[in-house]
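Lab notebook, bench 4. Still working through the backlog of constructs that have no structural model yet. Next entry is a single chain of 161 residues. Request: give me the C-alpha cells for it.
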Amino acid sequence: MTREQAVILRENIEVADRMRHHLERSHQRIVDDVPLQPGQIPQLNDDQIDRLDLYLGRFSKLQDFITSKLFRSVALASLEDTSQDVSLIDTLRRMEKYGIVQNLDDWLEIRLLRNSFTHEYLADEAAVAENINAAFSSYEVLTTILTRTRQYYEKHITPEK
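Model written out:
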C-alpha cells in the first residue's frame, strides 16, 4: 500500500460519512411517512413528497458512491490487483472477503433498488410504495457497510504516523 492510496481511502471514508450524516437526517424526517401503502401515494402532500425525494436522492447518491468510489479505494489501498474485477459481483465478492459486505444479495438488491429510482414513474403506486419502504429499510445496510469500511481501514490500512 502506498501512503497516497491510504489517504485517498481515508478521504473517501470522510466523504461517505458526510453523505451518511445527510442521509440520516433525511431518514429521521421521513420516519412518520413510512411504511407507505400503494393507496397513500396519491394522498401525499408536497412536503411529504419533498422529504421522500430528498431521502431517495441521498440514498441513491450514497449507494452509488460506495459502489463506484469507496469499494475501489478499499481494494487499491489493500494492494489488491483489481484489473480482473470486471463486474460489480467481482467487487462485491472482494468486499465480502474483507468483511465489509456481509450479504452479497442484500447489496445487489440495494443496487437494483437504486436503479429503479432512476427509471421510476409515479404511475405504478404499488412499485413506488414498495421501493420507498425498501429504501427506508435498507438504511441500516448502508450505514453498517460504512462502519465496517472504517473498521477495516483502521485495522488494515491506517498509514503509520
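Notes after review: The first helix runs from residue 3 to 29. The domain at 3-157 is CATH 1.20.120 (Four Helix Bundle (Hemerythrin (Met), subunit A)). Flag for follow-up if needed.
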